[in-house]
Design goal:
The structure holds 2 protein chains of 2 kinds. Chain A is an all-alpha fold. Chain A contains 11 helices and no strands. Helices cover 70% and strands 0% of the residues of chain A. Chain B has 2 domains: 217 residues, P-loop containing nucleotide triphosphate hydrolases (Rossmann fold); 71 residues, YebC, transcriptional regulation domain (Alpha-Beta Plaits, 2-Layer Sandwich), CATH 3.30.70.980. In chain B, β9 and β10 form a beta hairpin. Classes of the chains: A mainly alpha, B alpha/beta. The interface between A and B is large, with 42 and 44 residues.
Chain lengths: 309, 311
């Protein structure tokens, strides 16, 4: 798409292979295209494409670990069916709504490992000025990175749901009927996964963006989760001897707990008192999750507005 | 229309005045921007790029206001920062292609321009290797390539020869000169080394403490000075002693020995002194006007030991 040779004002005679410098007169796209390009590059970066093998290993292993229980159940679905037929009892299987609750810490590890990849490298190696002197604003940069992480997490979260779905269908004698039966149970995984991806993605990216060093970002995320899970639980338990009290609202600050509560809302199951102390309903946790996402995204954008270029 | 115009440009960082009422009007060409460290070179460049908002005053690039028309300016400007700005774990080709796409070039055009620009800066097969394994010289070339890849009308280079050895420095300067003359792109080259500016630039802006000190064609600044610079690998002190003993006015300036040229026989004196001492000689050349001289009222010919402290 380059235009013919530009004016050469020099007297240098180029070699026969040297076409000289050619000016570019083709199409120049705007900022949406720049955002799209950064989004694609971010996706490649998260999964380590175009990077050394070691960069691919971590995301694949962590995503694999999260999907492992579901995939194992899928692999052994025929065995499980035979066992169930012999014993006459319905097999106890992993279900969609509790899968996230049981294994969400693995998705969180994925964030700890890969969110810094998106926002720390450019700070550490001072690449940001190259972006900000191009057709890319600071907010656009932050949002493109966030979109890539959210999509990645969404995929990571949905792989096990898909494996469970395939496994459950295969276990039934009549596959077509099974699809009809299973689909209403499985479909809420999609909005639930999207919500979890938005909350975990925005939260981990916002925390990571405060340090150019991966290690500090990772420590920051782990510390944040530990404190936010532990402190509300501790405060609540101090006051809970006299029954449920208002401090249970603090659980909204615990990212993983409130996500578990919020994802249950999509499946329409009541919260089990064993897992959730206090009086908050799944709808309450859902609201809390949206607020967390909004605040984390604002913090991320604020951080990029303030970063020196 | 002047390429770059500034009126009363002021930038304060708290109590520090990086730029203080700077006025300029610059025509296209290869423009050298010189100033000591902290004179405000980088601040000026960042204001022209719209990375910083001036405290007061206005600046325009190609007739566009740097505050209101930042986006329009960025399509026609390329920037090579002073500091390292390359991630180590991607190849030069991937990185420059990505930067071309961020500048808005469609995928195929981005690839084509990347290959072309990397060839121009002299990176061939190495361009598929990871940047982390590159030498400083190669990294500087990649930095220049990413600034050129979207075919800007104006290139802002901040200390492009930072960290390069003499050979790499000469190659980079040659590249800059070719970019300006053959490619027809206007360049602003910030440097604290007048010697470099003199080699490649046609016009010079000197700033000091946020003020415009000089603005004129380069030839006004870089007349040869009556000082001979003798570079030796070691034994500079012995050479100074030997030359002083022979009646020449010499003093040491880091690794070099500066000798005042008071007569034609001085060249022979230096040659003999070097030969007698057997010191490893790197080069002898006539010193030209230097940045320090521009910022100092003292005559550049003054090389008596009293004027410059021995370092």
């Amino acid at each position: 798409m380059t235009a013919p040779r530009g004016d050469s004002t020099g007297t240098r005679t180029g070699s026969i292979y040297d076409l000289g410098y050619r000016h570019y007169e083709g199409k120049r796209n705007g900022r949406l295209y720049a955002m799209w390009s950064l989004f694609v590059e971010s996706l490649r970066g998260v999964w380590g494409f175009g990077r050394p093998m070691s960069a691919k290993a971590v995301p694949l292993i962590l995503a694999g670990l999260y999907a492992l229980p579901a995939v194992v159940q899928l692999a052994f679905s025929s065995v499980i069916t035979q066992q169930a037929a012999k014993s006459g009892k319905a097999p106890e299987l992993l279900n969609y709504q509790s899968y996230f609750a049981d294994f969400s810490f693995l998705v969180f590890f994925f964030c700890v490992a890969q969110a810094p990849e998106l926002v720390c490298r450019d700070q550490r190696y001072s690449v940001l000025p190259l972006y900000f002197t191009r057709a890319m604003g600071r907010i656009e940069y932050a949002l493109s990175r966030l979109a890539a992480l959210v999509l990645t997490l969404f995929v990571v979260l949905l792989i096990p749901a898909l494996a469970l779905f395939v496994g459950d269908v295969l276990m039934k004698p009549d596959a077509f009927k099974a699809i009809g039966d299973e689909l209403p149970l499985a479909l809420p995984s999609i909005p639930a996964g999207a919500l979890a991806a938005l909350v975990l993605g925005s939260l981990s990216l916002a925390i990571s963006s405060f340090s150019p060093r991966r290690a500090y970002s990772a420590i920051g995320m782990v510390a944040y989760i530990l404190l936010m899970e532990a402190i509300p639980a501790a405060i609540y338990s101090i006051g809970s001897s006299s029954g449920p009290n208002a401090t249970d609202k603090l659980f909204l600050l615990s990212p993983l707990t409130s996500l578990m509560g919020a994802t249950n809302w999509f499946f329409g199951v009541p919260l089990s008192p064993n897992d959730f102390a206090g009086t908050l309903t799944s709808a309450g946790y859902l609201g809390g999750a949206f607020v967390t996402f909004a605040v984390a995204t604002l913090v991320l954008m604020y951080r990029y507005r303030r970063l020196p270029a | 229309m002047p390429l770059i115009e500034a009126t009363g440009l002021t930038k304060h960082y708290g109590p520090v005045k990086a730029l203080d009422g700077l006025d300029l009007a610059v025509e296209p060409g290869i423009i050298g921007l010189v100033g000591a460290n902290g004179a405000g070179k980088s601040t000026l460049i960042k204001i022209l790029l719209g990375l910083l908002t001036p405290t007061s005053g206005t600046a325009t690039v190609l007739g566009m206001d740097t505050v209101r028309e930042t986006r329009a300016i960025r399509h026609v400007v390329g920037y090579m920062p002073e500091h390292d700005c390359l991630p180590p774990d991607v190849s030069a080709t991937d990185f420059v292609t990505h930067m071309a796409r961020i500048s808005g070039l469609p995928r195929a055009a981005a690839r084509e321009r990347t290959a072309e620009v990397l060839r121009h800066v002299g990176l061939y097969e190495e361009r598929y290797r990871q940047i982390g394994g590159y030498s400083t010289g190669m990294k500087q070339r990649v930095k220049l390539a990413q600034a050129l890849v979207h075919d800007p009308k104006l290139l802002l280079l901040d200390e492009p020869t930072n960290g390069l050895d003499p050979a790499g420095r000469d190659e980079m300067l040659d590249l800059i000169k070719r970019t300006g003359t053959d490619f027809g792109i206007t360049l602003v080259v910030a440097s604290h080394l007048l010697g470099e500016i003199e080699q490649v630039c046609s016009y010079l802006l000197a700033i000091d403490a946020g003020h415009l000190l000089q603005s004129a064609p380069i030839s006004n600044f870089t007349r040869r000075t009556p000082v001979l610079a003798v570079e030796v690998e070691d034994g500079a002190d012995r050479l100074v002693d030997a030359l002083t003993a022979k009646g020449a006015r010499a003093r040491r300036d880091e690794a070099r020995v500066l000798v005042a040229i008071d007569s034609d026989v001085l060249y022979d004196t230096v040659r003999d002194a070097v030969a007698d001492l057997g010191v490893p000689l790197v080069r002898i050349r006539q010193e030209r006007g230097r940045l320090e001289d521009l910022f100092r009222d003292a005559a550049p010919s003054d090389v008596s030991p009293a004027a410059g402290s021995v370092q």
